[in-house]
Design a protein that fits this description.
By secondary structure, the chain is α/β, with parallel strands linked by helices. It contains 21 helices and 27 strands. It binds alpha-methylisocitric acid (MIC) and iron/sulfur cluster.
Length: 642
């Protein structure tokens, strides 16, 4: 039987397990990346492992999330990360050098290699044929130490592309279309492989827009073949030697095939507050827009920016709209300037922001009260923009410009003819903002610098056989990690200070939760389906751990979050019978019985003391996961093996 591209890469990196769907496989990791909002914790975890030097082929730390520096906190974290990198063999991408996924694609991505990153959009690397996964910081720390990465062997989906995109219809619209078809849960447990003759019409940055947003499908990852287009991209980056061809076998077997004819697609838009709430732009024509943001790891490539600049050339943004443009990298930014395209953006009245995540994670540029914001980003979860009642829509750069010019949601095809975009043959390569680590010899004498904002990792505890705890919070379906542990300008600077962060845990859903959880001492959280979707932030597990959360009982979990819960020693269980969810009331006292034998047999009984009823819960843990849960998380488990 033939293999898919992903299966070929997994096979070449397999360390443990059989490649049977649903079984645990451990794979060797060639590259890692971190960003600063998750990186501080990841490097603190790496340091506790006592390993001198990273054991990967390439590890890179990016500073791109926390760049506001409204106090000493971010600057301290940056300094800490920079010093850790120098000492332990990690490349350090300075603040201003760009968004991790954009820079990694440009400068480090290699087809056929494996990559894990402490950021859920690491699958962006799939655009260049990498098998790239988002993971919690602890998993990234283990990989930096040379440990394998464990995943449940995924199903294989193929999206078969035919035809070619029409003018004003873009890779972003392809992403939104697949979200419309599959929903935010539709990719769970699957790797999405993009193939078919339509693939050759898409450039690497366009492919990367699509693999980037595969994260919003809940997919394990997404990947494109590596072909002539990939080779040209690598040559243009001065890295032609990194090219390898990658394709699936003709007789590769897929669990599901979805056909998309690119020529039939129209501009699409995701409405508040979910990336799968997708309709055609033409259906929303006439909705007033207050703000437009172009950028983020989804749409900040040179191609995206050149399109924006060409459409803005000689025009003026509507008086009622505030527009921001954040180029994805220093390379994109300098090339925009050199090509004269930046001045078209500035002259039209856009506010140019630095090369960073910025408004995407609520670091400034929040919309006005109930303001309508059209963003080229990948997530529009409630409150994420920093404005609680902000109405965020996700669109392509073309649709964003159409709204900026007219003040209303507008089908970009009404803008007239799409200007011809001349892509340069080579990219301007200047890696002077990527600092190399010290040599092994020099590293010995280097000190790691810690600021006062870095607080110790929360204590984890061995799993009790009987857990009596209060149901302190009952939430519904599709709870995101932005609900569990919000980000934004006021909170993000404290990513290395779990006690401080704990005041904000779940406050998007219930402002009284942190206090109630503390008072209860031990808590159980009950959730609906797809609990923990969205980001990879392990803080969405570490902060509940700090607040005494012992278990989460849900209808189903998102992949990275469930791994983070287990890494933190919090027990994730699902309902055997989903209708039992309705029987539980917030405030009841629950008892998980015979937990030690239950997690091995796959069934745990939960007594609801307020009704006297027993509810059956299930789990399907690997031996390694059972080990982690019993010991109190991954760090203690790893120590127990020594
Ligand atoms: C996001 O887009 O939600 C983030 C911020 O990049 C997160 C990481 C984080 O919370 O630090 C992600 O996607 O994993
Ligand atoms: Fe940054 Fe937004 Fe991309 Fe997350 S999704 S890495 S916050 S740009």
């Amino acid at each position: 039987m033939g293999l898919t591209i992903a299966q070929k890469i997994i096979k070449a990196h397999l360390v443990e397990g059989n490649m049977v769907v649903g079984e645990d496989v451990a794979i060797k990791i060639d590259q890692t990346l971190t960003q600063d909002a998750t990186g501080t914790m990841a490097y603190l975890e790496f340091e506790t492992m006592g390993i001198d030097r990273v054991r990967t082929e390439r590890s890179v730390a990016y500073i791109d999330h926390n760049t506001l520096q409204s106090g000493f906190e971010n600057a301290d974290d940056h300094r800490y990360i920079q010093s850790v990198c120098k000492k332990h063999g990690i490349y350090f991408s300075r603040p201003g050098n760009g968004i991790c996924h954009q820079v990694h694609l440009e400068r480090f991505g290699i087809p056929g290699k494996t990559l894990i990153g402490s950021d859920s959009h690491t699958p962006t690397g799939g655009g260049i044929g990498m098998l790239a996964f988002g993971a919690g910081g602890l998993d990234v720390a283990v990989a930096m130490g040379g440990g394998a990465y464990h995943i449940t062997m995924p199903k294989m989906y193929k999206v078969n592309l035919t035809g070619r995109l029409n003018p004003f219809v873009t890779a972003k619209d392809v992403s939104l279309e697949i979200l419309r078809i599959l929903s935010v849960k539709g990719g769970v447990g699957a790797i999405i492989e993009w193939g078919g003759e339509g693939v050759s019409t898409l450039s690497v940055p366009e492919r990367a827009t699509i693999t980037n947003m595969g994260t919003e499908l809940g997919a394990t990852t997404s990947i494109f073949p590596s072909d002539e287009i990939t080779r040209e991209f690598l040559i243009a980056q001065g890295r032609g030697e990194d090219y390898v061809e990658l394709s699936s076998d003709i007789d590769a077997v897929y669990d599901r095939i979805i056909d998309i004819d690119l020529s039939t697609l129209e501009p699409m838009i995701a409405c508040p507050h979910s990336p799968d709430n997708v309709v055609k732009v033409s259906e929303l024509r006439g909705v007033k827009v207050d703000q437009v943001c172009v950028g983020s790891c989804t749409n900040s490539s040179l191609l995206d920016m050149l399109k924006v600049s060409a459409l803005l050339r000689g025009k003026k943004i509507d008086d009622s709209v505030s527009m921001s443009v954040s180029p994805g990298s220093k390379q994109v930014f300098t090339m925009l300037a050199d090509m004269g395209a930046l001045s078209d953006i500035i002259s039209a009245g856009a506010r140019v922001l630095e090369c960073a995540c910025g408004p995407c994670i609520g670091m400034g540029f929040s919309p006005s009260s109930a303001g309508v914001s059209l963003r080229t980003f990948n997530r529009n979860f409630e409150g994420r923009s920093g404005t609680r009642d902000g109405q965020v829509y996700l669109v392509s750069p073309e649709t964003a410009v159409a709204a900026a010019l007219t003040g209303y949601i507008t089908d970009p095809r009404l803008l007239g003819d799409m200007p011809e975009i001349e892509m340069p043959e080579t990219f301007k390569v200047n890696d002077n903002a990527i600092l190399e680590p010290a040599s092994i010899e020099d590293a010995k004498d280097l000190e790691v610098v810690r600021g006062p904002n870095i607080k110790p990792f929360p204590e984890t505890y061995p799993l009790l056989d009987e857990i009596e705890a209060t149901l302190t919070l009952k939430v519904g379906d599709n709870i995101t990690t932005d609900h569990i542990m919000p980000a934004g300008a006021k909170i993000l600077p404290y990513r290395s200070n779990i006690p401080h962060l704990s005041q904000f845990c779940f406050t998007v859903c219930d402002t009284t939760f942190p206090l109630r959880a503390k008072e209860a001492g031990k808590s159980i959280i009950v959730g609906g389906s797809n609990y923990g979707q969205g980001s990879s932030r392990e803080h969405a597990a570490l902060v509940p751990l700090y607040l005494g959360v012992k278990a989460v009982v849900a209808k189903s979990f998102a992949r990275i979050h469930v791994a983070n819960l287990i890494n933190a020693g919090i027990l994730p269980l699902t309902f055997k019978n989903e209708s039992d969810y309705d029987k539980l009331t917030q405030g009841s006292v629950l008892v998980l019985e015979n937990v030690h034998s239950g997690i091995k047999s796959g069934e745990v009984t939960m007594l609801d003391k307020s009704t006297g009823e027993r509810i059956l819960l299930k789990c399907d843990f690997t031996d390694r996961q059972i080990g982690m849960l019993l010991e109190g998380g991954l760090l203690k488990y790893t120590a127990s093996l020594r």
